[in-house]
Amino acid sequence: MENHWKTIRPEESSVAEFHSNMLACVGPRPIAFVSTIDSEGRPNLAPFSFFNVFGTNPATLIFSPARRGRDNTTKHTLHNVEAIPECVVNTVNYPIVEQMSLASSEFGEGVNEFEKAGFTALPSKFVKPFRVAESPAAFECRVEQIIHTGTEGGAGNLVICRILALHINEKFIDGSGKLLQKEMDLVGRMGYEYYSRANSESIFEVPKPSSRDAIGFDGLPKAIRESDKLTGNELARLASCKKLFTQEEIESFIRAQITKNHVEADLIQSAKQKLAEHNYEDALLILQSAYFV
Ligand SMILES: Cc1cc2nc3c(=O)[nH]c(=O)nc-3n(C[C@H](O)[C@H](O)[C@H](O)COP(=O)(O)O)c2cc1C
């Protein structure tokens, strides 16, 4: 089926229109729930989904309190990190998502969102701003640099932070030191008023392709590559195998395993089952045999 594309250029749309389209296309975005203090020592707490980590050594994260598209004003968080270059980036999970959303209200200057949104302020170890006791994890940070990407409404202000410490609630760590991602239930920001959850219903594993010499899509037999019964994900699993089976191997598999009564649909079904079980080589052999007979 032919696809049709809508093309939008920032120069030709309003800031609001481009903003909402852009955010609906980049998601889920992680949420930095940023705690800062102003020059008078008053706490501030606000969420930012223009956020990610960008390096481990030095450990670096960046978030962006942007200029408001509406009236080109700037946010308390930006003023605060300009005055006191420190912050705590707290992570957000499902049990606190609505409190976090409440904290994003445009409260007046100096208003303490820990109090407004019902969070417990814990003292930090290395910086002055407090951290959120209810968050599953928190990064204490020193602000190293702020890059302004523009001066008009909607422009970003990249707050580049050096991570000084990461605190993780031990209830999310198992006996071997591994983090319990499914229990952590982190939330992500989508477009419009949508959020997403990362819990046992939505988290899935994609095993790393182990070898540098994967067959690749272009190395798969044409009949398999162009089969309309296999999805792109299934083909990727097959293409991650190291080599195709030889004609001899296929013939001996057919002699041993495939009876006259086997129909192609059954073989494809059983290959799909093997792929689902991460048994990629068996799936490849079955498919090569299915398309060989
Ligand atoms: C989940 C979420 C993500 C947000 N992400 C951003 C963002 O990345 N950049 C931004 O400027 N505002 C973002 N906002 C809006 C700010 O949180 C909001 O403007 C807040 O009032 C700023 O507070 P402050 O003035 O105390 O810094 C977000 C709001 C929510 C609820």
Structural notes for this entry:
The structure is a single chain. The protein is of the alpha+beta class. It folds into 2 domains: 10-198, Electron Transport, Fmn-binding Protein, Chain A (Pnp Oxidase, Chain A), CATH 2.30.110; 217-292, no CATH class. The chain is built from 10 helices and 11 strands. The strands form 3 sheets. It has a 7-stranded antiparallel sheet with strand order 2-1-5-8-9-4-3. A two-stranded antiparallel ribbon has the order 6-7. A hairpin with a 5-residue loop joins strand 1 (32-37) and strand 2. The site of flavin mononucleotide has 17 residues, from strand 2 and helix 2.
Q: What is the string of helix and strand elements?
A: HEEEEHEHHEEEEHEEHHHHH
User: In total, how many beta strands?
Assistant: 11
User: How would you describe the shape?
Assistant: elongated
Going across the biggest sheet, name each strand in turn.
2-1-5-8-9-4-3
Descriptive keywords:
single chain, 293 residues, alpha+beta, Pnp Oxidase, Chain A, 2 domains, 7-stranded antiparallel β-sheet, two-stranded antiparallel ribbon, 10 helices, 11 strands, elongated, binds flavin mononucleotide
